[in-house]
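Trying the structure run again after the queue cleared.
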Amino acid sequence: MAAKILVVEDEAPIVELLRYNLNSEGYDVVHAADGEEAELLLAEQTFDLAILDWMIPKISGIELCRRLRNRSETEALPIILLTARGEEADRVRGLTTGADDYVTKPFSVQELMARIKALLRRTSPERLSDTLVSGEITMDRGAHRVTRSAREVRLGPTEYRMLEVFLESPRRVLSRSQLLDRVWGQSAEVDERTVDVHIGRLRKSLIRGNESDPIRTVRGAGYVFDGRQADAA
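Done. Tokens:
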């Protein structure tokens, strides 16, 4: 599945430049024109990486970066700051606030694409792998096969996609709205209660006999998947 990247930038030519090149690399791109819109998108959807312009309206990129690092849902989100501020003090401030990388304008598109790929390879290796593993649960995406220890787990298409989303974001709280976005897409007319129904079906398929539940319900927040937790139980 393509990595999903949030671009927070208010200059239309740069937005189009980034969108074109990121799409050409196979990434799924979502755009926000200001910090407030970005916060709303981040609350509703999950992203694999965010590119934040420092000088954006309403909430600056540096402040948005600080807020994201202080929230459990986004504290591990890879962030690249994109800015015309190239002084050493600005770079230090950006990195100490929590940015993973800092790119100054004008920038080389090829260099930025290489930095994005390197950051995703380091922080989300599962995006590049055909095999996802969490504890005793393994998904072979090439063979479209799921196993728990030596047992094959049979899943419907929706449960398979839901498990894939969980395995791509292990030990991360995913809200119902985020699961709706990643499994069904923003355009789908699906009620959040449908998520609970499919979580129940996924659990039923994953658990046999005395096997423990790898999916933990977080009251008021959503769900967390951790196959290692199932091993330890």
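DSSP finds nine helices and eleven strands in the chain. Worth checking whether this holds up in the mutant runs.
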